[in-house]
């Protein structure tokens, strides 16, 4: 598994959001995008991570950052996640994990003694020109938003 690194152009993507509407990277030209991959909607760790980002929206807005969460969940499950936790950003469905593979975050995982292929929890900060500015891959779900905001504040 080879994760994309800072300085690489972000692969263009078009994925369906929680409402079944297509969302593409080019829709956000002129904004920064926090493109974050998470394993599964409505699981404890992913919920904590999403709520942290939800509650940081005002600060993220100050940095011109749009949040897009990506998982291999079907569109219908994404809508339920947003409703249940009052999320204020879009979630995208990458059911065939094609976009995860382009970003290099699909691969072997180990959990409770089992090895399987899955989505790695990695976030990419994509700049206004579509280039990966920073990769966040060392964080705890409950402090993910803090790690992102610390980076943004230091590089403002």
* Strands ordered across the widest β-sheet: 2-1-5-4-3-8-9
Report the span from N to C terminus: 31 Å
CA-based shape? globular
| Element order: H for helix, E for strand | EEEHHEHEHEEEEH
Structural class from helices and strands?
Answer: alpha+beta
* Total strand segments: 9
Oligomer class? single chain
Report the β-strand fraction as a percent range.
Answer: 25-35%
> Low-confidence parts, pLDDT < 50 over ≥5 residues?
none
Could you describe the largest sheet, including whether it forms a barrel?
7 strands, mixed
Please tell me how large the radius of gyration is: 14 Å
Helix content bin:
25-40%
Mean pLDDT: 96
Task: Determine the number of helices (DSSP H or I, runs of at least 4 residues).
Answer: 5
């Amino acid at each position: 598994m080879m994760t994309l690194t800072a300085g690489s152009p972000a692969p263009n993507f078009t994925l369906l959001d929680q409402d079944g509407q297509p969302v593409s990277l080019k829709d956000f030209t002129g904004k920064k995008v926090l493109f974050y991959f998470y394993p599964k909607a409505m699981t404890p760790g992913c919920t904590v991570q999403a709520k942290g980002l939800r509650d940081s929206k005002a600060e993220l807005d100050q940095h011109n950052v749009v949040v897009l969460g990506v998982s291999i969940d079907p569109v219908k499950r994404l809508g339920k996640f947003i409703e249940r936790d009052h999320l204020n950003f879009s979630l995208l469905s990458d059911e065939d994990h094609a976009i995860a593979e382009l970003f290099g975050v699909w691969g072997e995982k180990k959990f409770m003694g089992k090895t399987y292929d899955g989505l790695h929890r990695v976030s990419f900060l994509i700049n206004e020109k579509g280039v990966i500015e920073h990769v966040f891959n060392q964080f705890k779900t409950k402090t993910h938003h803090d790690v992102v905001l610390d980076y943004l504040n230091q590089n403002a």
